[in-house]
């Protein structure tokens, strides 16, 4: 029986309030409106950004909402005017959309991937027409999250937020290209353009940090210093290609002085913060090379936090920059990442440390992520 044009009833994990466990509920997902698609979510990987919002640190966090933004999906139906997708297509939802319109100075610029076409509605937990597609069992609205909301068996996405990918690609693996892994790789390749023989320091060895290491290895970096306060993460970092490891909690001096002084004479060519901790962001900048060092902020800090350093750090040639989704233009570049994975040139299997079944298992995935040994927990629906 066709569901096209009709509401769909399904299971979803609803975030009712910050700092509370998700609740498995039966919800209604309305049909897509103009410029939208409704998709069946096949796999969802848990990202720290979901937890950041669930823990109440996100200034744009709205409740009740359906979290999730790192997923692999199959198009169930399309709304009026959708031309790039048809039912049955496989897609990766992208929280950084790409409208591709000739008048969009962001999409047309090679300098950025930050298309603002639906930014205002997305930040308010709404679809582009400023309404929602989710209702709970009482008919009350549920907010969207990052334009994705993939902790639901079905969700509705803007067409411009969908990267169409090879149907042969395993959705429970390539879903990782929806956020963390792509972000780490892109920070190296796009934002900083790390060159052959560069030296690199990576702060924070979760999935994003390991992706930075992987990207740096593929870029030809000669030395990669992996920094964390949990030595248990060093084995994975070395396996990914790190040449040095530093437990910053065991040092008798600031870690930036250890890197720019003990491990190197003047610091590293490139440093990357993958923690969201503003003090670590400062340390990453200050261990970058005098005269030309570049430090990239990847981690998202809690609301109200600010970065700081002595202006002299910048006067003496260091550059501080940030990245969103690794600078990848989503609809153009995510399919290319999937192609590289399918050809064997971009392995990502090691990121998946936990696998669970059924949307109701999402709280178990959250527990795993908090456990300290989880890179990515993938929940298959």
Mean pLDDT: 97
CA-based gyration radius: 21 Å
Structural classification: alpha/beta
Q: What's the count of strands?
A: 17
Largest beta-sheet details = 7 strands, mixed
The first-to-last residue Cα distance is 20 Å
As residue ranges, the low-confidence spans are: none
Number of helical regions: 12
Globally, the shape reads globular
Helix-strand sequence: EEEHEEHHEEEEHHEHEHEHEHEHEHEHE
- Provide the β-strand percentage band: 15-25%
Q: What percent of residues adopt helix (DSSP H or I)?
A: 10-25%
Q: What would your notes on this structure say?
A:
This protein has twelve helices and 17 strands. The protein is of the alpha/beta class. Strands 3, 4, 5, 8, 9, 16 and 17 form a seven-stranded mixed sheet that branches. A six-stranded parallel sheet has the order 12-11-10-13-14-15, with helices on both faces. A hairpin with an 8-residue loop joins strand 1 and strand 2. Helix 5 packs parallel to helix 6. The protein is globular. The model has no long low-confidence stretch (mean pLDDT 97).
What's the quick description here?
The protein is α/β, with parallel strands linked by helices and 381 residues long. The protein has twelve helices and 17 strands. The strands form three sheets. Strands 3, 4, 5, 8, 9, 16 and 17 form a seven-stranded mixed β-sheet that branches. A six-stranded parallel β-sheet has the order 12-11-10-13-14-15, with helices on both faces.
């Amino acid at each position: 029986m066709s569901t096209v044009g009709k509401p769909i009833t399904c299971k979803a994990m609803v975030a009712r309030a910050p700092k509370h466990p998700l609740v498995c509920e039966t919800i209604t997902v309305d049909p897509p409106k103009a410029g939208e698609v409704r998709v069946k979510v096949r796999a969802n990987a848990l990202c720290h950004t979901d937890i950041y919002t669930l823990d109440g640190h996100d200034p744009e966090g709205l409740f009740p909402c359906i979290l999730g933004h790192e997923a692999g999906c199959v198009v169930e139906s399309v709304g009026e005017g959708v031309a790039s997708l048809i039912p049955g297509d496989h897609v990766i939802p992208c929280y950084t959309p790409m409208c591709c319109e000739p008048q969009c100075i962001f999409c047309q610029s090679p300098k950025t991937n930050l298309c603002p076409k639906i930014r205002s509605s997305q930040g308010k937990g709404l679809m582009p027409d400023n309404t929602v597609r989710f209702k709970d069992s009482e008919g009350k609205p549920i907010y969207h999250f990052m334009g994705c909301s993939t902790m639901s068996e079905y969700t509705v996405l803007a067409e411009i937020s969908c990267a169409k990918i090879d149907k042969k690609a395993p959705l429970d693996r390539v879903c990782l290209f929806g956020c963390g892994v792509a972000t780490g790789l892109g920070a190296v390749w796009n934002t900083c353009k790390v060159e052959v023989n560069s030296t690199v320091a990576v702060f924070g060895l979760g999935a994003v940090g390991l992706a930075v290491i992987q990207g740096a290895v593929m870029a030809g970096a000669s030395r990669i210093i992996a920094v964390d306060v949990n030595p248990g993460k060093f084995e994975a970092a070395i396996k990914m290609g790190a040449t040095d490891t530093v437990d910053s909690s065991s040092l008798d001096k600031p870690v930036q002085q250890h890197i720019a002084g003990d491990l190197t004479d003047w610091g590293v060519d490139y440093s990357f913060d993958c923690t969201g901790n503003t003090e670590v962001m400062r340390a990453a900048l200050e261990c970058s090379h005098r005269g030309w060092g570049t430090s990239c902020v990847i981690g998202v800090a809690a609301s109200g936090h600010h970065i700081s350093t002595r202006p002299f750090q910048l006067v003496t040639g260091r550059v501080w920059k940030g990245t969103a989704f690794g600078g990848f233009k989503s609809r153009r570049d995510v399919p290319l990442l999937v192609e590289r994975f399918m050809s064997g040139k971009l392995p990502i299997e090691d990121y998946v440390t936990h696998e669970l079944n059924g949307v109701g298992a999402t709280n178990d995935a959250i527990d795993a992520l908090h456990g300290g040994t989880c890179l990515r927990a993938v929940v298959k629906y």
